[in-house]
Amino acid sequence: CDWDQGSVNIGNHFDLASSIFVAPRKGIYSFSFHVVKVYNRQTIQVSLMQNGYPVISAFAGDQDVTREAASNGVLLLMEREDKVHLKLERGNLMGGWKYSTFSGFLVFPL
């Protein structure tokens, strides 16, 4: 995905150009996302990917609404240099990712 802006990016471990977070150290990390589809009658599926593999997904599929959200969150054990990003697995987001959020932080270093 391509994010328009980053609100807080302490340490610059989230690369805005590639939309990938790279863990600076081993630990337990918390991630959450909230994706909004607007004026789109297609079902969307968004997955949080860790090192290229889907960990969790969220769906929005109501055909009769103009706006609908898909959200999810997870705690992950990550090694140093592990990568996390969001992937639109199904459907499309009219208007891009501008109505969406992605958040992650270190909960407990190991």
From TrEMBL:
<keyword id="KW-0964">Secreted</keyword>
<dbReference type="InterPro" id="IPR050822">
    <property type="entry name" value="Cerebellin_Synaptic_Org"/>
</dbReference>
<feature type="domain" description="C1q">
    <location>
        <begin position="1"/>
        <end position="110"/>
    </location>
</feature>
<dbReference type="InterPro" id="IPR001073">
    <property type="entry name" value="C1q_dom"/>
</dbReference>
<keyword id="KW-0732">Signal</keyword>
<dbReference type="Pfam" id="PF00386">
    <property type="entry name" value="C1q"/>
</dbReference>
<dbReference type="GO" id="GO:0099558">
    <property type="term" value="P:maintenance of synapse structure"/>
</dbReference>
<protein>
    <submittedName>
        <fullName>Cerebellin 2</fullName>
    </submittedName>
</protein>
<dbReference type="InterPro" id="IPR008983">
    <property type="entry name" value="Tumour_necrosis_fac-like_dom"/>
</dbReference>
<dbReference type="GO" id="GO:0045202">
    <property type="term" value="C:synapse"/>
</dbReference>
<dbReference type="GO" id="GO:0005576">
    <property type="term" value="C:extracellular region"/>
</dbReference>
